[in-house]
Amino acid sequence: MHDFKFKNNELFCERVRVAAVARAVGTPFYLYSYKTLTDHFTKIQTAFRRIDPIICYAMKANDNLSIVKALLNKGAGLDIVSGGELRKAIQLNADPKKIVFASVGKTEEEIALAIQERILFLNVESVPELETIDRVARRLHTRPQVAIRVNPDVEAATHDFITTGTLKKKFGVDLRSTRQILRTQKRFPHVRINGLHIHIGSQITQAKPFIDAIKKTLGFIESLRREGIELEYLDIGGGLGIIYRDEKPQTARDFAAAVLPMLTRSNLKIIMEPGRFIVGNAGIFVTKVLYTKDNGYKKFLIVDGGMNDLIRPSLYGSYHEIVPVKKTTAAKIKVDVVGPICESGDFFAKERSLPKMANNTLLAIMSAGAYGYTMSSNYNARCHVAEVIARGNRFFVIRKRQGFADLIKNERMPEFLK
Ligand code: LLP
After folding, report:
1. Which one of 25, 102, 226, 374 counts the least CB within 10 Å of its CB?
2. How far does the centroid of ligand 1 lie from the alpha carbon of residue 203, in Å?
């Protein structure tokens, strides 16, 4: 499943000792396996080969240029959510004909850039946005291709914050309004509406929600066809779940088996937007034990990483496996693994059974490759950590740790305070 394994009681990333990386770059840091990353992309590619979809890696999961480049080299397209991600894609010479852009709040500048770059689709999330795209396109004398992100109103059985395909959520356009837009598309002469997009949520481990959403959307497309409205593309979004603890997620092959028959029959060109599935288990977050504390009621393991570096446990109550980088036979105790930040929400695990550990012990927080670094912040004036990728027996720093100068470089002090 991934290339983080113990050999002689020591954790390796591919053939690199995690402890050796810690010595070289200090802690905390993110460490990725090139092999796991690219293998996961290939798994999806292989499972779906029959329909040859455009696999647009969701950059929001991890937008480090080297991670994205590794996937582009394997033939990935990109799913982007902002002008920043688009600029990163341009910087990497990504093929614009494999870029799709979804966001409920694209600004005019972002829309203009996407149009000028001639990306494959702007995925529209509301009528006012479609009007804006139409207006910007007229100004730029082009006719970009847009897809409507529909909200199919299906439950995704995942954390509420990452469920997106129900009408209680801000995402997409409901089916009735979508039909209305398509029936009156002459109102938008400067765009070519040529597809539908769905993305119902993230970390979905079962096939059923996907099947429900795709079935509903295909039925809808069929009903449009009967009205004489033809669309060429369906973007089925991302959302494939991975193993953090004891989940039994569908494999890429299971997923393909479940949805390929319908997709093949539809004759539509298919786009996919996996993020977590590709990069989630390809990365770990490595942190060091600073202190242990026992207040008579509870025991704490205080580490040098914090919620600003990896916010998933704090934000979603997410479970991440935690292992000492060197296996030990010490007796296990129940501890809260916490960071140095001034909030009780700053934890990586609660009441976790871990071996007793001395100060300076290195810990690996597993499955941290997706939505780890990308969601990190400078809270508490803490520097963004380093990122490293291992390939075979070598490792490469793909992002330097920030320094103090980075923290203050955009700050300005008005004269009257000096
Ligand atoms: N496409 C769209 C339009 C999306 O909004 C997302 C993720 C994806 C694709 C990729 O989904 P994936 O394959 O990675 O599940 N921060 C949360 C996850 C937020 C997902 C946001 N959208 C977490 O850490 O669990």
Report:
1. 226
2. 8
